[in-house]
Write a structure and sequence with these properties.
The complex is a heterodimer of chains A (266) and B (213). Chain A has 266 residues and is α/β, with parallel strands linked by helices. Chain A is built from 10 helices and 6 strands. In chain A, α4 links the parallel β2 and β3. In chain A, α2 runs parallel beside α3, α3 runs parallel beside α8 and α5 packs parallel to α6. Chain B has 213 residues and is an all-alpha fold. Chain B is built from 7 helices and no strands. The chains are: A alpha/beta (266), B mainly alpha (213). Chains A and B meet through α1, α3, α4, β3 and α5 of A and α1, α2, α4 and α7 of B.
């Protein structure tokens, strides 16, 4: 055990088990075998939001939030937001709705995700057979300062009057003025973040919102890719497992046994 | 099918992602000097990519300003775009000539950026209060519970709470430890599982959003 770091054995077992299950369910999904996923109101609202904007002849505003940084621990949230954006862009292309994406707030002004966003949106328009409708200037990289991003979004809301505001990704405090302004302008608001600190704020401001893990599932649900949907089963399996561990641990600790606690730190 | 674009646009990035992920994950579990060195080098390389991204961001901003200059009819909006360009240029020139640690750059930063930032911070506080106020509605049992808990929390944190009733502090502690913490932990654990799934899908090349869909 000299090579393996002390205290990581249980983590490694978890990782191997988790990875094996994900690979198995990816394979099952590729064969078209997957468990039906419940409808998440926030995800359904995305389709409604784009439809609303199309009917009103007004744009859809999308942002990954003011912590959209791909090189930090928020990267998976950014990827989850991008997965949603891919489907939102396809919906917008299909309905001929203008899609405005704003990036900013993080240390690089969201610039590191800019090429990804441009490519994702462009590919979505190509997939829908409308590459000529893609407008590069609608993907706007604003600034590294979160306040600048916030102010620019509010300015866009006033000048271009989007009908729907979609904010999915890692949010920090400066999303509040943006969402509050969108709310006061009567825009339909859909939000999602896994940052626990801002989930209550989202709950207060958004018409529909995705809580925590739902943002990771949203991309899969929107795309309806069987392999992606199948992997969500692993999440449920592990949730049940963790609930079992918590209950067992609580009972053992109440009985005065430290056995499980000691096992988990090996 | 053209072979080169598939290799460059899909296979190569997928291989790089997989290889880098395996190295970075291995660093957490094993104590091998070579792996530690590679992972440190990988983490350092993100700074170089970050430097390139700043140029990209500036180009994107300039493209947007150019479009505004061509299409915008309103002169005040054009004026804001010109102001933005001038500010960008000013910071770029001063920073390049005197350095970002110079007194002049610091002065510009503290006299332009800080006041605006602080003004916005103030606005955030205002929106938080407004949002909290608008969410306090006694409509059903859930909103009633929210209202009650919010009231106790708010009052408990005020300086005169202990004078009013000494029981506020223990009630607040109980709410934070037995209602707030388990709820938050539940969300964090479920979020972590979702995060893990997205990461594995990315490592195995199923989630390709970062490759441009």
């Amino acid at each position: 055990m000299a090579v393996l770091k002390i205290g990581t054995l249980v983590d490694l077992i978890f990782l191997v088990t988790f990875t094996t299950l994900v690979l198995y369910y990816l394979q099952q999904g590729a064969k078209g075998k997957y468990r039906k996923v419940r409808e998440i109101p926030g995800v359904s609202a995305i389709r409604e939001g784009v439809g609303r904007a199309a009917e009103m002849g007004r744009p859809v505003h999308f942002t990954l939030g003011d912590r959209a940084d791909i090189k930090t621990e928020y990267a998976p949230q950014v990827l989850a937001g991008i997965a949603c954006l891919s489907e939102i862009a396809r919906l917008c292309a299909r309905t001929g709705t203008q899609l405005i994406c704003t990036l900013g707030g993080s240390s690089g002004g969201g610039a590191e995700v800019l090429p990804l966003i441009e490519d994702v949106v462009y590919n979505a328009y190509v997939a829908e057979g409308k590459p000529e409708d893609y407008v590069r200037e609608d993907i706007r990289c604003i600034a590294g300062e979160r306040a600048s991003w916030s102010a620019a979004c509010i300015g866009i809301f006033y000048r271009e009057k989007p009908a729907t505001n979609i904010m999915i990704g890692p949010m920090a405090g400066f999303f509040l003025p943006v969402a509050a302004m969108a709310s006061s302008l009567g825009m339909l608001q859909i939000g999602g973040t896994a940052r626990t600190y801002h989930i209550p704020n989202m709950a207060c401001l958004m018409d529909f919102f995705l809580v925590g893990e739902e943002i990771y599932a949203a991309g899969a649900i929107l795309s309806q890719d069987p392999a992606m949907l199948a992997t969500l089963t692993v999440e449920d399996i592990f949730k049940m497992f963790f609930i079992g561990i918590i209950l067992l641990g609580s009972i053992l600790l109440l009985g005065g046994s430290q056995w499980l606690k000691n096992i988990l730190v090996i | 099918m053209e072979v080169k674009p598939v290799i460059y646009r899909t296979l190569l990035p997928l291989f790089i992602t997989f290889a880098c992920s395996v190295v970075l994950i291995s660093e957490f579990f094993v104590d091998i000097t070579a792996i530690t060195m590679i992972s440190v080098a990988l983490k350092t390389s993100t700074s170089i990519i970050f430097a390139f991204s700043i140029v990209l961001g500036t180009v994107s901003l300039l493209l947007w300003v150019r479009k505004k200059m061509i299409t915008e009819k309103n002169w005040s909006n054009r004026g804001f775009s010109i102001l933005l360009l001038l500010t960008l240029l000013l910071f770029l020139v001063i920073g390049s000539i005197f350095g970002i640690d110079s007194n002049l750059y610091s002065l510009l930063f503290t006299s332009i950026n800080f006041p605006i930032m602080n003004a916005f911070e103030g606005m955030v506080c205002f929106w938080m209060v407004k949002m909290a106020y608008s969410s306090w509605r006694l409509r059903n049992i859930e909103s009633g519970a929210l209202l009650g808990i919010a009231f106790i929390t708010l009052v408990s944190l005020s300086p005169w709470a202990q004078m009013l009733w000494p029981g506020f502090a223990p009630v607040y502690e109980w709410i934070m430890n037995y209602i707030n913490k388990p709820g938050m932990r539940g969300i964090i654990m479920a979020g972590a599982l979702g995060l893990f799934i997205v990461s594995l899908r990315t490592i195995f090349g199923k989630e390709r959003g970062y490759l441009g869909g």
